[in-house]
TrEMBL record:
Keywords recorded for this protein, A-Z: Coiled coil, DNA-binding
PROSITE patterns: HTH_ARSR_2
Name assigned to this protein: DNA-binding transcriptional ArsR family regulator
Molecular function GO terms recorded: DNA binding
Superkingdom to which the source organism belongs: Bacteria
């Protein structure tokens, strides 16, 4: 659900704005060419992914970033990065061995 919520550029932008400090729905809506209801729909998606919390302050609804929800996604990305780095390192070693072997045969005039 986290990656689905992050797939939309407007939602990523909302998270970036909330990183600085809490904002109301009206504050957020000022930055987008969409209605407050449209912004509220994006906030609902972010709220379902536990990336944003909404709370009432008088007549206003204040939105706050919940960065802890990004931890599992960050851990998954880091795990994928480590696995791919290991695979690419093994590929590089294999290619280095093949290149060295080819150069050795070329020096001996065994080139095909």
């Amino acid at each position: 659900m986290t990656f689905s919520a992050l797939a939309d550029p407007t939602r990523r932008d909302i998270l970036a704005r909330l990183r600085k400090h809490p904002l109301t729905v009206s504050d957020l809506a000022e930055h987008y060419a969409m209605s407050r209801a449209g912004v509220s729909q994006h906030l609902t998606v972010l709220e379902r992914a536990d990336l944003v919390q909404r709370s009432r302050r008088g007549q206003w609804t204040e939105c706050t970033l919940s960065p802890a929800a990004l931890d599992p996604a960050s851990e998954w990305i880091e795990q994928q990065r480590a696995e791919w780095k290991e695979r690419l390192d093994r590929l590089e070693e294999h290619l280095d061995r093949k290149t060295a072997l080819h150069e050795k045969h070329t020096e001996k005039g065994e080139e095909k």
